[in-house]
Amino acid sequence: MKKILLLDIENSHKTENELKQYLLHYQYVYLVYAKSPVCLSLDGLVALAPFVINEKLKIFKMPKIG
Question: How much is the pLDDT for 45?
């Protein structure tokens, strides 16, 4: 069975390390946001990039807030 996490990142603020832990525990992680609330360091961006490239981490911007 595939474990998939759908996370509304605006309502549940997560650190880079927390996101990486989710990526280790779930087969796929989907992040959804309307207004970018997350500040990632460049180190965090580099750490998460392989997950985006292999499509394990998918990020979706919603067209409007609410």
Answer: 86
Which residues have CB under 8 Å from 21's CB, separation 6+?
Answer: none
Task: For residues 65 and 35, give the distance between their C-alpha atoms in angstroms, rounded to a whole number.
Answer: 7
Tell me if residue 51 falls in helix, strand or coil.
helix
Sheet containing 57-61: order of strands? 4-8, 28-33, 57-61
Structure tokens at 30: 């989907």
Q: From start to end of the chain, where are the E strands?
A: 4-8, 28-33, 57-61
* pLDDT, tens digit, 9 for 90 and up, residues 10-64: 777 788 889 999 999 999 999 988 887 667 788 888 999 999 999 999 999 888 8
22 near 48, Cβ under 8 Å?
no
Residue type for position 57: L
